[in-house]
Design goal:
There is one protein chain. The protein is mainly alpha-helical. The chain contains eleven helices and no strands. Helices cover 82% and strands 0% of the residues.
Length: 222
């Protein structure tokens, strides 16, 4: 089977414009880049890209159409995904509030240089990356609309698989670049100094993404 280069070219241009859009995946990689070592970032990115590729393949197989035909199942999937993102967000907010209180007790002392330079060890970064991508269930239906709009769903299997490859490479390159920029000494030192406030901010954004996911589907259900 030959690749339909015209469809792939149109899809690539569109996807390159979509990739920088902020979302839970970029939030996770940004936070890990500022707080963890590069190995944890790489492992989390691998899990994230695997989940994204799974959603893209599921789109080619018509999973979103099956979910659309079963509204109750679709609602349950949205609720689970949204609940996970809200849970992650609330944990970060709580950790940020606790850290801020401890900082106030210590009379606002600046963090030691080691705190800014020594990375923390994250627990299960692969699962964090995979679950964050899978929790954003709306991406499955978004991919369906994109694939249908540019003709991927009408193209042959080789073209569809090539589109999945473009998604993985595009997302991987963007998130890796973002992580590389944020793992520099300046951003990490800034984060270490204002970590409590920054964690509250990251947590609020995660919770907002999750709440929006649930609200979007709940309104459609009602």
């Amino acid at each position: 089977m030959q690749l339909d280069t015209s469809i792939l070219a149109a899809f690539t241009l569109l996807w390159l414009a979509i990739v920088p859009t902020p979302g839970p995946n970029s939030l996770l990689i940004m936070r890990l880049a500022l707080t963890a070592g590069w190995r944890d970032v790489a492992v989390a990115l691998a899990g994230n890209l695997l989940a994204i590729a799974s959603y893209a393949l599921a789109t080619l197989l018509g999973l979103s159409l099956l979910l659309a035909a079963a509204p109750s199942v679709r609602l349950a999937v949205y609720l689970l995904g949204g609940a996970y993102l809200v849970w992650v967000g609330l944990r970060l907010v709580w950790a940020g509030l606790r850290r801020s209180r401890q900082r106030d007790i210590s009379a606002g002392a600046n963090p030691a240089p080691a705190e800014a330079s020594e990375p923390n060890r994250e627990s299960r970064p692969f699962m964090q990356g995979a679950l964050t991508a899978l929790a954003n269930v709306q991406a499955l239906f978004f991919l369906t609309s994109i694939f249908a709009g540019v003709g991927i769903l009408r193209a042959n299997l080789a073209t569809g698989l090539a589109a999945v490859g473009i998604i993985v490479v595009g997302n991987g390159a963007y998130l890796a670049l973002l992580a590389w920029l944020l793992q520099r000494e300046g951003p990490r030192a800034f984060y270490a100094r204002y970590r409590g406030v920054m964690e509250i901010g990251f947590g609020a954004l995660f919770a907002a993404f999750g709440a929006r996911l649930v609200w979007h589907e709940a309104v459609a259900w009602l």
